Amino acid sequence: MKQAKAAGIDAFALNIGIDSYTNTQLNYAYQSAANIGMNVFISFDFNWFTTSQTSEIGQIIKTYGSQSAQLKVGGKIFVSSFKGDGLDLDAVASASGHSRTDLFFAPNFEPTNAGSADALFNWMAWPNNGDNKAPGSSNNLTVSDGDRTYISALAGKPYMAPVSAWFSTHFGLEVSYSKNWVFPSDLLWFQRWTEILTLAPQFLEIISWNDWGESHYISSLGSPHLDDGNSKWTNDMPHDGFLQMAKPYISAFKAGSKTVDSYIKSDQLIYWYRPTLKSASCDSTDTCAKPWPSSTPNPNYFVGKPNGYETMEDSVFVIALLQSPGTVTVVSGSISQTFNANAGPNAFQVAMGTGKQSFSLTRSGQTVLSGDSLKDIISDCVCGIYNFNAYVGTLPAGPSDPLQADGLKSFALSLSATCQATPSLGTAPVASVAVATTAATAAASTSAAAKVSSPTVSASSSLAPVVTSATSTHAYAPPETPVTTAAAAPVTTLDSKPSTTTAAVGGSGGSKTITALSQLAPTNCMHTGYVWAGPPGSDPPAHCDGG
Question: Which residues contact 365 (CB under 8 A, 6 or more apart)?
């Protein structure tokens, strides 16, 4: 939660289902947010809820809408969803004990179903085919196409636009939620932020804060969470660099600026790439190698390489955020390219070469930034599977960000290749870490002044151990007439998973030593009297009760 707040995010969308621990998690999430001056709001996930549950949904709003951390827009309780077309919003309001005008609904309905909603949220943050898969030759919809469709249908009502860095999921038959596809992501994170500044939507949702399973997380891997099987492709694959790149864009968005240049406060290189080439063959060991076992098709499961893999480029992507012009050099294996970079934001890409990845920035013959990535590109398979996730690094280098033990619990499940369930990256030089920490501290001190009534950025977080597809982050940009809605513009929200938004279960009083996150399930939080004795160097879970 603190990490998000330091980046300029103002609120978290709490994506919830109907699990037995949902209310417990919500209680801790709202309290955690209140403890640090953060806002949160509930996003009802209609993968689990049904549109007939207006009474149940209304009761949840009644319970949490009056809490101090609740995000409000123009004094109205902000409520969102993942899907849910056909939900009777008037009936939900009635069941909540509020008048309809006391609530601000910004659901993820289809654009044709704006109806009585106050705004709409568009979840499709990636180029696609119109049917929740990667684009094809005859069906290629851009994210901007989605913007135009929603804005037109809303006819002047506020629009909550999506922005996301990546999408790759690779669950095999070892779990009940098998799915295996990618959306083309490549330079999407950079391109989409540029579009957002031009579009200036009333609200912005970043997808996502902590959805490890679909690889669009921007929070730290080390954030305490349980493993739903995603560690096979998230281990050694930090994404914090995505959040670092977004910081000046969030500031620009909240200020209503069309350009990010004046919000770049120091030189920085952010780079990302997949760990293997598309040509790698993993069919004999991959976890999605077996055909779907049922006669009833699963439209999300594909054998072998993820559906849409051919839409991804074999490239190393580099973003240079510079205060003055410089020269950027990228070395990918045996491939080396040098670019002239302007002051402001720059994007470059170089063909992937196997081996070491190195990056540098020089200016007037002097080296400003230089370093090697902690992760090489290989021609073979990572632990025997097709891994289309992105490795993200920065210069100056950030701190080490390994998965904790509980985030690796399902690593070996169904793996055919011999692979250790441990993080294997080295650590960044101490000097580089110190620079990154100082910058983060400065960001935190300035972002604390952001108010909900001004442009804000919000992030969504799942309350369940298994992250659902709607986990995301929101942002709110300034409309011509300031609108007080949390998800409409750059908004800063809670921490990533239940761990950052909840407190530990268990009675108060006495002392209890906690050595693993599994002892805190399902809330993943510490309680007053608990003592953290986890692995050396691991961060303790949050004391969500303020202890």
Answer: none
Q: Report the chain's C-alpha Rg in angstroms.
A: 22
Residues 345 and 341: their CA atoms lie apart, in Å, by 8
Q: How far apart are CA 160 and CA 118, in angstroms?
A: 11
Burial class (CB in 10 A: 0-12, 13-18, 19+), 230: buried
If we measure between CA atoms, which residue out of 134, 225, 193 comes closest to residue 8? 193
**Residue the block writes with tokens 């030759």:** 137
Residue 536 token pair = 């050396």
Place of tokens 């993993």: 282
Burial of residue 427 (CB within 10 Å: 0-12, 13-18, 19+) is: middle
Is 209:461 a contact under the CB 8 Å cutoff? yes
> Residues 467, 224, 386, CA angle at the centre, nearest 5°?
55
Reading the block at residue 263, the tokens are 């919000």
Q: Tens-digit pLDDT profile for the chain (547 aa)?
A: 999 999 999 999 999 999 999 999 999 999 999 999 999 999 999 999 999 999 999 999 999 999 999 999 999 999 999 999 999 999 999 999 999 999 999 999 999 999 999 999 999 999 999 999 999 999 999 999 999 999 999 999 999 999 999 999 999 999 999 999 999 999 999 999 999 999 999 999 999 999 999 999 999 999 989 999 999 999 999 999 999 999 999 999 999 999 999 999 999 999 999 999 999 999 999 999 999 999 999 999 999 999 999 999 999 999 999 999 999 999 999 999 999 999 999 999 999 999 999 999 999 999 999 999 999 999 999 999 999 999 999 999 999 999 999 999 999 999 999 998 999 997 664 433 222 222 222 222 222 222 223 344 556 565 432 222 234 444 444 332 222 223 323 332 322 332 222 222 223 334 455 555 555 544 455 544 455 555 544 455 554 443 3
pTM for the structure as a whole? 0.82
**Beta strands in 251-325, from DSSP E residues, in sequence order:** 268-273, 315-322
Q: Helix (H) and strand (E) counts for the chain?
A: 10, 23
